[in-house]
Amino acid sequence: MATKLTMPAIDLKAFGRQFEGLQGRHPGLWPAVPRFSLLAGIFAGVMLLAYVGYWSSQLSDLSSAESQENTLKSQYADKLISAINVDTLRKQKTLVSAHVSQLQRQLPSKAEMDALLSDITQAGHSRGLQFELFKPGQVVVRDFYAELPIAIRLTGSYHDLGGFASDVANLARIVTLNNLSLQAGEKPGQLTLDAIAKTYRYLDGEEVDKARRNQPKGAAGGAK
């Protein structure tokens, strides 16, 4: 027959009596329980003082260093990707530079504007159109280019006017036709075209500096 194990009873009163009469006695003469309780309290106090006076700052520095380590790892990963793709980025830069140069070649300089205006009138005359109005307007200066609107009025057949618009679009320089208006002409089969032809030219260094100086405050920082 199995015997039933029983836990020995703990006499709490006996523990409590060990804390009686300790006042005035040397701690080395205290009973075991008070002595060990005092040692545990001293150890806990020392640990608390060490944490407040030293470990807390060390743990804060450690946390900051871990955060900085994660940031540096992220920056390293980004730079590693850039280094791997540097050849591709260089090729893209070369293509973009070539495209920008091509666009710049489509914008005449100030000295070439007269030749461009002559090309526009020549495009109309080659189609047999009659210019009733060819009036350049006020130059509008942008960040890096200038825009010149020209009010034009031409008379001719529908097909000749369409051919003129196509010829203007195929000019080596950029010219756009805006605000187009067609009306019947005085003669049968003739039409009158009113439009604003806009031409563009790039600004030289001096003009760019002047345009930036004339910008309102706060606008210059946004120009790119």
Describe what this molecule looks like in 3D.
The protein has six helices and five strands. By secondary structure, the chain is α+β, with helices and mostly antiparallel strands. It has a domain at about 110-210: Ribosomal protein S6/Translation elongation factor EF1B (Alpha-Beta Plaits), CATH 3.30.70.60. Strands 1, 2, 3, 4 and 5 form a five-stranded antiparallel beta sheet that branches. A hairpin with a 3-residue loop joins β2 (about 140) and β3. The chain starts with 11 loop residues before the first helix and ends in an 11-residue tail after the last helix. The model is unreliable at about 220-224 (pLDDT under 50).
Task: Provide keyphrases for this structure.
single chain; 224 residues; alpha+beta; Alpha-Beta Plaits; 5-stranded antiparallel β-sheet; 6 helices; 5 strands; rod-shaped; disordered C terminus
Question: Can I get a quick summary?
Answer:
It is built from six helices and five strands, in the order ααααβββαββα. The chain has 224 residues and is an alpha+beta fold. The protein has a domain at 108-211: Ribosomal protein S6/Translation elongation factor EF1B (Alpha-Beta Plaits).
